Amino acid sequence: MKLDTVLVHAGVRRDPVYGALSVPIYQSATFQHPALGESTGYDYSRTGNPTRTALEEALARAEGGARALAFTSGMAALTCALRLFGPDDHLVVTEDLYGGTYRLLDHVLGLPHTYVDTTDLAAVRAAIRPNTRAILVEALTNPRMKRADLAALAGLCREVGLRLIVDNTFLTPCLCRPLALGADIVVHSATKYLAGHNDVVAGALIVRDAALGERLHFIQNAVGSALGPQESWLVLRGLKTLALRMERHQQNAARIAAWLRRHPRVEEVLYPGVSGMLSFTVKDPRLVPQVLRRVRLILFAESLGGVETLITFPWAQTHADMPVEVRERLGITDRLLRLSVGIEDAEDLIADLAQALEGECDGVRDEASAHGA
User: Fold this and answer.
1) Fold of 3-239
2) In 64-110, where do the E strands start and end?
C-alpha cells in the first residue's frame, strides 16, 4: 500500500471483540495473567500497552522500519538512542541543530562529540576518530533549514562501521524515509508533525534492525520513558491526516517564503522547498519584538508542526543554551525568526505578517524564556 493509505488505516482492526474502527485506549497500568507462567502478551504498561503497540506498528510501517518505540517526548527518544554509547564513544553531530539536543549533549550526557557541517561530507569524514561510533544528523536542520545528503552519509557510515542516527522531525516519512537511504535509527519529536495538533508531547524511535530495536526497548523499559495510552491514541489519530497536512503546510510555506523574499525589511529567507518550516532574518533587530508583539493570527509560541502557525525567536528561546559566539557563527542571530507554517489560508497568514512588519521599528527586544521547546 502507498504511504497515504497506510497512515489513514493506522490503528484500524485492533478491536477483535466489538470491531471499533478507532483503536481502544487501554487505560490500564497492569494486565491480568490467565494463569501462572501465562501472559496475554501484556503485563505492565511501562513494558507494553496495546494502544501504544498500535501506534508503534503504524510508525514502523510509515518509516519502513523493523520496529518502532514510542516515548514520552522527542528528547526522551533521543536520550534512549544515545544510551547505546558509552563515555568513551565519540559522536559526529550536525552543528546547526535543535538547541535541546545541544543541551543534552553538552550539559547532560557527557558523550564526547564534534559538531560539523553535515552537508559537507569531507568535513564529516575529517571529524571521524578511531573511537567514533555514530553520526547524528537532522534531516532538515533547526533553524537554518540545511539538508544533508543522507544517502552519502549512510555510505560513509557503512564504509567505516558507524551508526547513522537521523532526526526526521521536520520532514516526516511523507517527505523523507531515512531508513531507506541507509540510516540505522530515525528519531521523531512526535509532538510536532506526526501528532500535528499541539495537544500532546511524544517521541519515537524507528529502527531497521529488529535486534537493535529489542536493545532499545530494554533501555526504554529500564528507564521508564514509554508513552502512555492516551497520548499514544492522540498521536495515532494525528497520523491519519499527516499526508494531507504536509501538503498544505508545504503549499503555505512556499507562498509565504516567496512573499518574504520580496519584502524590503527581510534580509534572508531560509526555505529549502520542503516541509512547513522556514526561517527569515530581518534587517533591523528592533523588528523582532515588533513582529512578535503585533502578530494576531500567527501565535508567538514555541514548538512546531501543528495546524496553527507559530513563530519563535531561536536566539532567546530554543537555542539560548548555545554560547553566543556559536549562535553567531551559525547564523542564529538576534534578527532571525522561525515560522512553523500551519494549514490556515496562506493569504490570511501573509496579511498578518505584513501588518506586523510595517511601521516604525520602535520596539525593544523582550527577554524571552531561555529553555523553550
Assistant:
1) Aspartate Aminotransferase; domain 2 (3.40.640)
2) 67-71, 90-94
